[in-house]
Amino acid sequence: xxxxxxxxxxxxxxxxxxxxxxxxxxxxxxxxxxxxxxxxxxxxxxxxxxxxxxxxxxxxxxxxxxxxxxxxxxxxxxxxxxxxxxxxxxxxxxxxxxxxxxxxx
Length: 105
Fold this sequence. Notes:
four-stranded antiparallel β-sheet; 105 residues; transmembrane helix
């Protein structure tokens, strides 16, 4: 094998290439257009930087965050509420006269 390619955890933009005991950090997507047309990566020269092994080990370790599930609970609760109240929604259809609308607005 000529070289080894490794991904940096939680960072898809950069890749680490180990070549002859050197670590090279390559900027894979230097522009936003590479996300939409990834075949352009094959023909465009890449920028890279040499890093030491200790820097590589520091990059490769990450601390996981305590992700709260409040967003998932709120989203699931709102979908559940919409499903459960679907058959009662016609009760909220109220006729309003023009004067009341003008007063409220």
